[in-house]
Design a protein that fits this description.
The protein is an alpha+beta fold and 82 residues long. The chain has two helices and two strands. It has a two-stranded antiparallel sheet. Strand 1 and strand 2 form a beta hairpin.
């Protein structure tokens, strides 16, 4: 089914890397080749893995920042109600 979807979009080859934080899968980042079927080099695979790790770090930092802001807002609300 996935292969049919890729083929219907003219995608010949894909390269994907997981975005993982603390053992939790956040998603995938990837590249598609529509011009030709290709074998991705080791360097390209390594680069995609680095991109996946970097994006996972950014997503996790954003989640932590949002959680901190929510916690600070709850704390302020409690302090102001006293």
């Amino acid at each position: 089914q996935d292969r049919e979807l890729l083929q219907s979009q003219g995608i010949q080859s894909t390269l994907a890397a997981p975005m993982v934080v603390n053992g939790r899968l956040l998603g995938f980042v990837g590249l598609d080749s529509v011009r030709c079927r290709r074998q991705w080099s080791g360097e390209e695979k390594t680069l995609m893995s680095l991109v996946g790790n970097a994006l996972a770090g950014v997503i996790e930092r954003k989640r932590v920042d949002e959680s901190l802001r929510e916690s600070e807002a709850r704390y302020r609300s409690v302090v102001e109600s006293v």
